[in-house]
Each structure stands twice: as C-alpha cells, then as structure tokens.
Design goal:
single chain, about 325 residues, alpha/beta, Rossmann fold, 6-stranded parallel beta sheet, 15 strands, binds guanosine-5'-diphosphate-beta-L-fucopyranose
Amino acid sequence: MDKNSKLFVAGHRGLAGSAIVRELTRKGYDNLILRTSKELDLRDNNGVDNFFDKEKPDFVFLAAARVGGIGANANFRAEMIYDNLMIQSNVIHSSWKHGVKKLLFLGSSCIYPKFAPQPMKEEHLLTSELEYSNEPYAVAKIAGLKMCEAYNIQYGTDFISVMPTNLYGINDNFDLENGHVLPVILRKFHEAVKNNKSQVELWGSGQPKREFLYSDDLAKAVIMVMEKVSFKDLSIGEKIINTHINIGTGKDISIKDLALMIAGITGFNGEIVWNTAKPDGTPRKLLDVEKISALGWKAETELDEGIKKLYDWYIENE
Ligand code: GFB
C-alpha cells in the first residue's frame, strides 16, 4: 500500500472508520474514497457493485457495520444480522470481483463463546455457544471472517479479518438506550452533574468485566496490519492457523470500576443505582493479544487518559 494507492474506507463516519481516516491522513495517505450511507447504501448489491466498477479501489477497510451496545443488540436483533450480512457480503464479494489487492474486515470480540477461556485466543472461535444477547451480530461477524477465509482459499484473495475488543472514542454512540456502555455512562454522569441529580441508574450488576480500546489506537493497529500482514502469513503451508487477529489492550476492568473512574473524571459524586432487571451480557470478555503484540503493536492510551479525551470531545460537540 503506497501513499497514493486508492483506499476505500467503508463506514468512515463511524467510531472505527473515522479513526482509520484520521490516522491514514496523518500518515500521508491522500487518495481516500469515502461515501456516506446516503450516497451509497452498502446493503444494496447493485449499488455497491457499480461503485466498485467505477472507482476500482486498490485497498478496502471494511469498518461499516450496524453496531450498538447491549440495548441495541436486544432491540434490533433483525437489523443486527440483516444489515451486517448484507454490508459485508456486498463489499467482500465486490472486492473480489473487482480485483481489490487487500481488504481488511473489522469484526468484534463478540464472536467468541460466552464462556470462552480468558484471555480469549483466536483459536477459541466456534468452540461453544455464543452469548444470546448479541448472537445475531456475532453470527454476522463470524460469517464475515469465514467469507474472507473462503475467498482467500478458493480465489487467492488477500482478505484479512481483525477482531477488536470494545472500542470507545470520537464519534461514539451516546444514545441512552442503544449506545455503548462507556459513552453512555459518561453522558449519564455528565447530565447528572449539570442538572444537580444525586442518583444515576446504570444497567446490570456492575460485575461483568470488559476490555476497552481507544479508537485511535485501534486505527494504528488496523493500518499496520494492512501494511504488513497478508493472509498467507496466518497459515503454515496449506494449513490455515488463523482466520483473524485480535486487537485489544490485554487489560480489563469491571463495569463498576469503570463507572467509578468515569464518575471521578466527570465529577459525579452521587449514588449509583444498579438496575439488575437489565442484562449483564457475557461475564468477561478479555482478548489474548499475543499475535498483534508479536507484530509490533501495543495500545498506547491508558483508559483514564482516553476517557478524559473523549469527555473533552463530548463537551465540545454536545
Ligand atoms: O455496551 P455493552 O453492550 O457492551 O454493555 P458489551 C456492557 C455492560 O455494561 C453490560 C453494562 O454488562 C451492561 O449491563 N451497563 C451498565 C450498561 N450500564 C449501562 C448502560 O447505561 N448502557 C449500556 N449499554 N450498558 C458489546 C456489544 O457488548 O460489545 C457490541 O453490544 C460490541 O455489539 C461490543 O460487539 C464489543 O460488551 O456487553
């Protein structure tokens, strides 16, 4: 991939996609092809095919997806599977058809079994049942990585999949019902401080543990993989040893401790009420990051530092 290669970043307005665009621009890649979902509906097979035919991108970052927190996964089970299957199938298939040199597909740590050993290694994929609350999303993401693998084997393409842990950062989803846990807690505390509220309700028991990665750190990992790694590097001879690479910090934190950290940053001193009628989701979700570390990448942003950056951005853009 050189500095004037034609790069298509699908999903460039989202949390992951916008971070990838910022980092590509910072590194001097200046031939980016970007389309909003209004301009190009990635669920539309003909539209996507025509776009690839016309633009002929050399490299594709597939960061477009229907995503959300545990609420969105419960409220939109149908969209979670339909939209994701359509988006990724159209983009992956058209990338093959129109000779894309390399494609990078972004999945999620939700692909692993609910009770996978911790930390979760790439080879734990499909070893037991999934967490029910986000099963439609996880099934779509597993289909995406398997589709990349299948095209690589049959057609000799170079389509690589990476599985990031829970992300947070600029352009995050702060929607109280459907957003991700970290930005939603930040918003709840911020609004409580602003409105002099002494109590904030959070979901579940607070006991589950999650691993959080700042989106700008993810972008560096993703671009490094695109620049350095080929699908054949993930195999030994004919044997495929890995279909994907985990991207995480290697450290996790309970939702309760996360809430206390965010309370400190936002200045919320009131009471936290845990609504246990809301789901906890999977008990723990920590990625094994040995492979991405061996490639020379490491998360740089400490959690408290990343939350402070996100809080500054949120206040500016509220
Ligand atoms: O954001 P979330 O769905 O991440 O929720 P997941 C994580 C945990 O935070 C759950 C608790 O145990 C929730 O009960 N929680 C506490 C809250 N308060 C809140 C709140 O106000 N809002 C939310 N959303 N949660 C995501 C998937 O699962 O993992 C995504 O939903 C994505 O699709 C991501 O794949 C990696 O870790 O449970």
